[in-house]
Inverse folding.
């Protein structure tokens, strides 16, 4: 039954195999075809130059360096084995020599001991020497000391007469054994010596003294041969107490060093028969060192061969092998690199043109929508982004904000430090502003120092305020330009969609109007657009348009305010102040039109007119017989750094006949800090012409005492903010008094501005302020009224003179 079941199963398996045979053959064929395809693909890739040549290089380099490194390993191992064998052989020879010498010394000690103990005091070293029982005294000095340590006999005159205090003498009192002393230097010869001794006993067995053999320590290392041991080998005998009795390396012999005996001398005989490569503790040199303990004596012999010396030839050969392998590798790589380069050039030349075209197109597209200096989006891209954001905000009934801002007084940076510093400033500002915005926000450079930011998907207006404050704070941080620290501020105008405009042009224009409002109100702030700003903008445009024709139409005039001596009350000079009589608007305050003139550059021709008119008027007063008084004229930053300033001044003084010593030019403290080198050069030129220099509104800037000493300055004019509360707050009094004292210390003329009351004038007189000006004396008046004041002063002076006469 079991046999039938087995046959049935075999039959069924055969049928299954037979039935699946075609399918198996198809599957196997497909597998072979796929494998062949994969193989052809791999072979095709392998035949490519960037795979073929590196593969060949790797295989050949592996063969070269594998062979070289194996050869180096074999030779290095052979050299180390040879050095170790030599060290062991030399150690065996040296051990035999030392043992022979030690036995000879110990034999001598035993002979003398026997003779002395047998014959007693009748023993004579001379008799022993005559019988040739003692070694030659050229190397060995045999001595006998009695029980008190006195040396009573010696084969050679002894340097030491008593040895009672020596360690070996004290030890021999207790034990009867060979004693080897620590090395010591002879008092006369100053050479290292070793003392070997044994105890002498009297007939009754008591201690009777010692017999000693003194040997030069160098004797035990005299077998040092440089030809075998080299210049840095070592030969020495080491006591079991860890003290070297003698050691020699090259021509240097020493003794007495203490080392760790267990670390130097192996504890087993098998280990003592091997040479160990180690760094010797006594001199730090790596050696193949063999150390062996002498069986009958408390000593070990040390033999060492310097590893550097023993491996010198091998290392030279290794360097040769490495050099050859390197040269072969470089040559192989060079050949394969040339072949690879030749094969790549064709493929590279085909792809390079395509890549250049793509890169050029991408660059053109990038520059079309980005600023080349700051890499920010430019006006064109910002306009598209703003248009898209407006459409999105309109569709989903959302708000967005446009922030238009620029840098305050940026032109001064360009004019004083150059365009390179200006470009650096713009790049740093762009980076700081980007850090203040969300990823969804956009900042673009519109041109010059103008930037605009887009805040889409605005949920509440307070986020706009937060961003504006962040930008102001970021810009306010100091900038380092050309190695100097500068502070810059920004003015920001803000418009909101949809209340401030429904299209991009309106939003940008209104944000721009808001920004200019910030500038008119003192800069370094932000402002939301309002309908009121539109009206103010129209007024500004009117003023700017009228300002361009004011000179041609003689609409400017000069008023003058006198300066008085605090002690005498006499007029000492005057300051020329510009006024504009607009045909439609009437008298326009300087604070309204001067900033516009600064921004548009009209301040330069206007300032030139002021200088010439003031000089002409001063000369006219002099021609009328009035006193020759100084006249002060303010210079703006733009005027001061104008390249034609010095030439214009020389021409004005020559044309008007004005004495340069009567002209005083007023500049601000902050101007001194712009470009110190250029400022110093201009001030020096002005001083050489005879013109006086005054610092206007002194005390509100950043100048220091050292700065005042550095510049050629004649006058400081205290700012009116210090004078306003001079009779009240103690702080203002202290600051004003400090400025007056500083001026006197530097021999400067000190003028107080803005004096409006008698109490203020009296305070300045009591505190030795030399001059003052302000409404207390007179308001700015036309030239004819100044002439009347000067004539009145002349009349008073004449009357006083007649009365005195």
């Amino acid at each position: 039954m079991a046999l039938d079941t087995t046959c049935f199963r075999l039959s069924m398996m055969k049928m299954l195999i037979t039935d699946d045979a075609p399918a198996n053959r198809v599957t196997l064929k497909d597998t072979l075809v796929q494998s062949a395809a994969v193989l052809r693909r791999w072979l095709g890739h392998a035949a490519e130059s960037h795979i073929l040549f590196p593969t060949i290089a790797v295989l050949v380099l592996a063969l070269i360096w594998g062979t070289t490194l194996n050869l180096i390993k074999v030779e290095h191992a052979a050299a180390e084995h040879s050095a170790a064998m030599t060290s062991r052989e030399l150690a065996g020879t040296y051990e035999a020599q030392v043992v022979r010498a030690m036995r000879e010394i110990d034999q001598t000690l035993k002979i003398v001991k026997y003779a002395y103990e047998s014959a007693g005091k009748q023993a004579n070293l001379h008799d022993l020497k005559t019988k040739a029982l003692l070694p030659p005294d050229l190397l060995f000095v045999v001595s006998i000391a009695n029980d008190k340590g006195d040396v009573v006999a010696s084969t050679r005159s002894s340097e030491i007469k008593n040895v009672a205090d020596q360690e070996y003498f004290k030890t021999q009192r207790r034990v009867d054994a060979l004693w080897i002393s620590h090395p010591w230097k002879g008092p006369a010869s100053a050479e290292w010596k070793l003392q070997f001794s044994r105890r002498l006993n009297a007939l009754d067995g008591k201690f009777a003294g010692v017999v000693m053999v003194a040997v030069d320590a160098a004797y035990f290392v005299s077998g040092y041969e440089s030809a075998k041991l080299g210049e840095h080998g070592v030969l020495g005998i080491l006591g079991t107490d860890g003290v070297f009795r003698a050691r020699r390396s090259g021509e240097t012999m020493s003794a007495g060093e203490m080392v760790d005996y267990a670390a130097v001398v192996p504890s087993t005989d098998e280990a003592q028969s091997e040479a160990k490569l180690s760094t010797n503790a006594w001199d730090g040199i790596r050696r193949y060192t063999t150390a062996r303990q002498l069986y009958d004596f408390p000593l070990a012999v040390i033999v060492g061969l310097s590893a550097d010396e023993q491996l010198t030839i091998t290392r030279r050969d290794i360097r040769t092998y490495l050099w050859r392998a390197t040269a072969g590798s470089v040559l192989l790589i060079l050949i394969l690199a040339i072949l690879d380069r030749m094969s790549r050039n064709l493929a590279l030349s085909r792809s390079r043109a395509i890549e250049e075209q793509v890169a050029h197109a991408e660059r053109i597209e990038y520059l079309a929508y980005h600023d080349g200096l700051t890499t920010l989006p430019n006006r064109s891209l910002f306009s598209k982004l703003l248009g898209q954001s407006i459409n999105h905000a309109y569709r989903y009934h959302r708000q967005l904000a446009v922030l238009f801002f620029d840098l305050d007084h940026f032109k001064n940076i360009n004019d004083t430090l150059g365009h390179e510093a200006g470009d650096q400033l713009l790049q740093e500002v762009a980076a700081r502003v980007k850090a203040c915005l969300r990823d969804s926000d956009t900042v673009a450079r519109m041109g010059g120092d103008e930037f605009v930011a887009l805040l889409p998907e605005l949920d509440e207006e307070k986020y706009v305020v937060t961003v504006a404050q962040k930008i102001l704070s970021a810009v306010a941080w100091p900038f380092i330009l050309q190695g100097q620290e500068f502070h810059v501020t920004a003015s920001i105008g803000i418009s909101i969609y949809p209340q401030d405009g429904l299209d991009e042009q309106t939003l940008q224009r209104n944000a721009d109007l808001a920004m200019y409002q910030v500038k008119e109100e003192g800069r370094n702030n932000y402002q939301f657009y309002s309908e009121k700003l539109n009206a103010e903008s129209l007024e500004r445009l009117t003023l700017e348009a009228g300002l361009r024709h004011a000179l041609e139409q003689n609409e400017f005039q000069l008023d003058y305010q006198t300066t008085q001596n605090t002690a005498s009350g006499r007029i000492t000079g005057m300051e020329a102040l510009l006024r504009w009589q607009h045909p439609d608007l009437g008298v326009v305050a300087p604070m309204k039109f001067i900033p516009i003139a600064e921004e548009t550059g009209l301040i330069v021709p206007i300032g030139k007119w002021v200088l010439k008119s003031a000089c002409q008027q001063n000369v006219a007063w002099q021609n009328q017989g009035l006193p020759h008084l100084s006249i002060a004229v303010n210079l703006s930053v733009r005027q001061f750094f104008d390249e034609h300033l010095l030439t214009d001044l020389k021409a004005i003084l020559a044309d008007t006949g004005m004495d340069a010593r009567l002209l005083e030019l007023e500049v601000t403290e902050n101007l001194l800090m712009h470009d110190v080198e250029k400022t110093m050069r201009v001030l020096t030129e002005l001083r050489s012409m005879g013109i006086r220099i005054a610092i206007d509104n002194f005390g509100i800037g950043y100048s220091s005492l050292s700065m005042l000493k550095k510049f050629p300055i004649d006058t400081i004019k205290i700012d009116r903010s210090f004078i306003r509360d001079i009779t009240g707050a103690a702080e203002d009094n202290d600051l004003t008094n400090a400025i007056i004292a500083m001026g006197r210390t530097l021999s400067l003329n000190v003028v107080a501005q803005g004096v409006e009351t008698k109490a203020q004038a009296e305070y300045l007189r009591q505190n030795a302020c030399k001059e003052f000006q302000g409404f207390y004396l007179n308001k700015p008046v036309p030239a004819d009224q100044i002439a009347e004041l000067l004539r009145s002063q002349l009349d008073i002076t004449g009357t006083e003179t007649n009365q005195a006469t």
Remarks:
- Confidence is low (pLDDT under 50) at residues 1-10, 12-19.
- The first helix runs from residue 2 to 46.
